[in-house]
Write a structure and sequence with these properties.
Blueprint (H helix, E strand, L loop, with lengths): L2 E5 L2 E3 L5 E8 L7 E7 L6 E7 L4 E4 L7 E6 L4 E6 L8 E8 L15 E2 L3 E5 L2
Length: 126
């Protein structure tokens, strides 16, 4: 069964850190396009970061640059999102997504992905 399972969400104070994990099963993350999206209440889903698991290049949304880092452990078939200096506006459900083409220029578009996790809630509040 092809599956993506996120974990690591929770409640954190502003300025704090969290690390999200997304474990893939039933398929390999090698040579895939992988992204983290988020959706806050009443807002559209937006891309946070993407990583091309061919050369390992990454892209980040301007809103998270310098604070978030995405990485892959191919041995564990797991992708991570390290989130530092969290702000209340980072509150959202975070999803990982996997697509077949690591060379696309459209890594921030939801249509580039065909597998999605169930999401994990991140709440930043004092």
């Amino acid at each position: 069964q092809l599956q993506l399972v996120e974990s690591g969400g929770g409640l954190v104070q502003p300025g704090g850190s969290l690390r999200l994990s997304c474990a893939a099963s039933g398929f390999t993350l090698n040579y895939k396009l992988i992204a983290w999206f988020r959706q806050a209440p009443g807002k559209e889903r937006e891309a946070v970061s993407c990583i091309r698991n061919s050369r390992g290049t990454t892209n980040y949304a301007d809103s998270v640059k310098g604070r978030f880092t995405t990485s892959i452990d191919n041995a564990k078939n797991t992708v991570y999102l390290q989130m530092n200096s969290l702000k209340p506006e980072d509150t959202a459900v975070y999803y990982c997504a996997v697509g077949p083409n690591p060379f696309t220029l459209r890594c921030f578009e939801a249509g580039s992905y065909n597998y999605w996790g169930q999401g994990t809630q991140v709440t930043v509040s004092s």
